[in-house]
Amino acid sequence: MTRMAKPNITLVQGDITEQDVDAVVNAANSSLLGGGGVDGAIHRKGGPEILAECRVLRRSPEYGKGLPTGQAVATTAGWLPATWVIHTVGPVWSRSEDRSGLLASCYRESLRVADGLGARSVAFPAVSTGVYGWPLDDGARIALETVRQADTEVEEVRFVLFDDRSYAAFAS
């Protein structure tokens, strides 16, 4: 087995569906059947093969009720420049309940899946910071800390951030 090391972290402002990496992480919903935001963009640009594999996963005993929050699973990337899509379900932010462990788990589990695939470069969105309401600065802190602490064979983790505000939160 290859020696585990810390990945090189890069920040890019742009479109995650255009990243030429081994694996793109999808901020999916638990159904795995597409949605809005990053999830919708990945399904639209990746084409029907991604949805077809997600439907197969949903018919399996393991994912029949959907993908649990904080977990990750891979499919083909279809027409995307990447080889795989790693789907992870982020938590909805809550004022009354600390769900930061679930958010960190999204990043750790995605890297674990990437290691199992042999992926060396992975592009992440800012999981849960869109419609799921996670405060951007805190989401960036959790993402960066989790990836920095991860033992993984992934050599490059690229955070692909959609706008100036997101980029600034990860860069600070």
TrEMBL record:
Q: Which PANTHER family match?
A: GANGLIOSIDE INDUCED DIFFERENTIATION ASSOCIATED PROTEIN 2-RELATED (PTHR11106), MACRO DOMAIN-CONTAINING PROTEIN (PTHR11106:SF27)
Q: What is the lineage of its organism?
A: Bacteria, Bacillati, Actinomycetota, Actinomycetes, Kitasatosporales
Matching entries from InterPro entries are given as: Macro_dom, Macro_dom-like
Protein name, UniProt field: O-acetyl-ADP-ribose deacetylase
Q: Boundaries of each Macro domain copy?
A: 1-172
Q: Which residues form the signal peptide?
A: none
Which organism is the protein's source?
A: Streptomyces daliensis
Pfam families recorded for this chain? Macro
Domain of life from the UniProt record: Bacteria
